[in-house]
């Protein structure tokens, strides 16, 4: 018994050691990027390596004093959260229709929805710019919400559809036998069953929205509508050159909200990533 407990303890220690080393390997670039944000710019651009860097809050004071970074962060969070809500509200019933109803052209419609992601965004950038200009939505967070939602809607719909295909139809047949409508079946049976998949699709849409730069730069051309991705571009030129420590600090601030969301819902996210993996 003592030897078995010792072997079990050694295996557990080895497991935690490997996981700890892997976590350190994954976090090392993020921590290094953060350390650049709290170093003087002169030490970053020097050709000679500095093994014991000094600590400086110059970049921190710069992004909050000279740049309204809180406003940019607020714009990013509002635009991303709004686009995810729009995508889920539209994608869930669309996916339910594609997964459960049988009608002529259903597979073609599903392919057409997904094919919109095969098109280069630059092709429709100018028409979308003039469309929002005509609607009076340029340089607003509402425009960013709509464009993010439009860009990611096809992917979110297809992902949720694949999760719905894994739900046995017998559950719906039993509910219909009891007199439940399709809307009630969707709300009380399908959505709870694929909730991890919906959360996964929402997180993927949020990540895509954060990484969107072309439409953001085109639509949010004034500081009132800047997001963090556009604000980052302002640290890469001008008379001061590339401000590396400010870029690192703003990039880390953009990373933190996503990290916190993923950490909070990791249980649902890990389950959702395994759902719908076979059917497409």
From TrEMBL:
<feature type="transmembrane region" description="Helical">
    <location>
        <begin position="242"/>
        <end position="265"/>
    </location>
</feature>
<keyword id="KW-0472">Membrane</keyword>
<comment type="similarity">
    <text>Belongs to the binding-protein-dependent transport system permease family. MalFG subfamily.</text>
</comment>
<feature type="transmembrane region" description="Helical">
    <location>
        <begin position="77"/>
        <end position="99"/>
    </location>
</feature>
<feature type="transmembrane region" description="Helical">
    <location>
        <begin position="142"/>
        <end position="164"/>
    </location>
</feature>
<feature type="domain" description="ABC transmembrane type-1">
    <location>
        <begin position="73"/>
        <end position="265"/>
    </location>
</feature>
<comment type="function">
    <text>Part of the ABC transporter complex MalEFGK involved in maltose/maltodextrin import. Probably responsible for the translocation of the substrate across the membrane.</text>
</comment>
<keyword id="KW-0762">Sugar transport</keyword>
<keyword id="KW-0813">Transport</keyword>
<dbReference type="InterPro" id="IPR050901">
    <property type="entry name" value="BP-dep_ABC_trans_perm"/>
</dbReference>
<feature type="transmembrane region" description="Helical">
    <location>
        <begin position="185"/>
        <end position="210"/>
    </location>
</feature>
<dbReference type="InterPro" id="IPR035906">
    <property type="entry name" value="MetI-like_sf"/>
</dbReference>
<keyword id="KW-0812">Transmembrane</keyword>
<dbReference type="Pfam" id="PF00528">
    <property type="entry name" value="BPD_transp_1"/>
</dbReference>
<protein>
    <recommendedName>
        <fullName>Maltose/maltodextrin transport system permease protein MalG</fullName>
    </recommendedName>
</protein>
<dbReference type="GO" id="GO:0005886">
    <property type="term" value="C:plasma membrane"/>
</dbReference>
<feature type="transmembrane region" description="Helical">
    <location>
        <begin position="111"/>
        <end position="130"/>
    </location>
</feature>
<keyword id="KW-1133">Transmembrane helix</keyword>
<dbReference type="GO" id="GO:0055085">
    <property type="term" value="P:transmembrane transport"/>
</dbReference>
<dbReference type="InterPro" id="IPR000515">
    <property type="entry name" value="MetI-like"/>
</dbReference>
<feature type="transmembrane region" description="Helical">
    <location>
        <begin position="12"/>
        <end position="34"/>
    </location>
</feature>
<keyword id="KW-1003">Cell membrane</keyword>
């Amino acid at each position: 018994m003592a030897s078995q407990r010792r072997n079990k303890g050694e295996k557990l220690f080895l497991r935690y050691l490997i996981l700890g080393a892997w976590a350190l390997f994954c976090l090392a670039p993020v921590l290094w990027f953060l350390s650049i944000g709290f170093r003087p710019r002169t030490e970053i651009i020097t050709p000679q390596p500095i093994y014991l860097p000094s600590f400086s809050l110059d970049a921190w004071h710069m992004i909050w004093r000279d740049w309204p970074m809180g406003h940019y962060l607020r714009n990013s969070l509002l635009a991303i959260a709004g686009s995810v809500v729009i995508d889920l509200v539209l994608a869930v019933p669309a996916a339910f229709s594609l997964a459960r109803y049988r009608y002529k052209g259903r597979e073609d419609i599903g392919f057409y929805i997904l094919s919109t992601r095969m098109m280069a965004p630059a092709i429709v950038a100018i028409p979308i710019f003039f469309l929002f200009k005509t609607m009076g939505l340029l340089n607003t967070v509402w425009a960013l919400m709509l464009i993010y939602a439009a860009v990611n809607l096809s992917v979110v719909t297809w992902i949720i559809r694949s999760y719905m295909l894994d739900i046995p139809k017998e559950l719906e047949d039993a509910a219909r036998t009891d007199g439940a409508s399709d809307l009630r079946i969707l709300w009380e049976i399908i959505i709870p069953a694929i909730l991890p998949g919906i959360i996964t699709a929402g997180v993927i849409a949020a990540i895509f929205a954060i990484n969107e730069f072309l439409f953001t730069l085109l639509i949010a051309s004034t500081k009132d509508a800047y997001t963090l991705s556009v604000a980052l571009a302002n640290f890469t030129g001008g008379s001061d050159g590339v401000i590396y420590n400010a870029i690192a600090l703003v990039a880390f601030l953009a990373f933190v909200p996503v990290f916190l969301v993923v950490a909070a819902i990791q249980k649902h996210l890990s389950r959702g990533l395994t759902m719908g993996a076979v059917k497409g």
